[in-house]
């Protein structure tokens, strides 16, 4: 009898452990579907902007609840953008080489297959409104191997846009 109770206790304990370790899913399936589509970017990407080569790496982290983008230009500092689900929309927090951290959000996700358009909600580390900072990001997943990002920014009262185009590095390729 003691053996049966012990086995039952161990089974319940293991089930609780695995349930706790399972990735947390959003309450809104459309925002989760959009995040899952974004997470399909995992891996290495290459591009060029203004004559400079850029490597981008996507890594799913935090038990599947966050997608980390590492932006590595040929020369210059590395930048990080973290993507997460928050209710019925997605949030992107960009850790910029300008030493500020814009947080941007999509509107409520209605079609997870459409490009994701993030708009600035707030920013930390900005010393002056005239300092350079990102104000938006649109992520366009053209197909499994081609990605476009459109970043909008403001600096000294003027706004602009920078477009980055990336191609997936073949798995096992360099």
- In CATH, the topology is named Lipocalin
Helix run count: 2
Instruction: Give, in order, the helices and strands.
Output: HHEEEEEEEEEE
| Biggest sheet features | 10 strands, antiparallel, barrel
Total domain modules: 1
Average per-residue pLDDT, rounded, comes to 87
What separation lies between the terminal Cα atoms?
60 Å
Which structural class do you get from the secondary structure elements? Answer: alpha+beta
CATH structural class: Mainly Beta
Helicity range: 10-25%
Could you characterize what this model shows?
This protein is α+β, with helices and mostly antiparallel strands and 174 residues long. Helices cover 18% and strands 49% of the residues. The longest helix is centred in the N-terminal third of the chain and has 20 residues, at 2-21. The protein has helices at residues 2-21, 29-39, and strands at 43-49, 52-61, 66-73, 79-86, 89-95, 101-105, 116-124, 133-143, 146-155, 158-168.
Please supply descriptive tags for the structure shown above.
alpha+beta, 10-stranded antiparallel beta barrel, globular
Secondary-structure blueprint of this entry?
Layout: H1 2-21, H2 29-39, E1 43-49, E2 52-61, E3 66-73, E4 79-86, E5 89-95, E6 101-105, E7 116-124, E8 133-143, E9 146-155, E10 158-168
């Amino acid at each position: 009898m003691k053996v049966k109770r012990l086995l039952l206790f161990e089974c319940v304990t293991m089930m609780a452990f695995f349930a706790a370790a399972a990735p947390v899913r959003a309450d809104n399936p459309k925002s989760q579907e959009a995040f899952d589509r974004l997470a399909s970017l995992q891996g290495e990407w290459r591009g060029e902007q203004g004559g400079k080569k850029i490597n981008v790496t996507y890594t799913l982290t935090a038990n599947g609840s966050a997608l980390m983008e590492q932006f590595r230009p040929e020369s210059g500092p590395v930048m990080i953008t973290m993507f997460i689900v928050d209710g019925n929309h997605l949030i992107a927090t960009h850790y910029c080489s300008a030493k500020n951290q814009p947080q941007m959000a999509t509107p409520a996700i209605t079609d997870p297959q459409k490009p994701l358009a993030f708009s600035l909600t707030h920013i930390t580390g900005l010393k002056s409104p005239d300092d350079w900072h990102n104000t938006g990001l649109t992520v366009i997943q053209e197909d499994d191997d081609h990605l476009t990002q459109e970043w909008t920014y403001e600096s000294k009262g003027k706004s602009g846009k920078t477009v980055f185009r990336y191609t997936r590095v073949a798995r096992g390729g360099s």
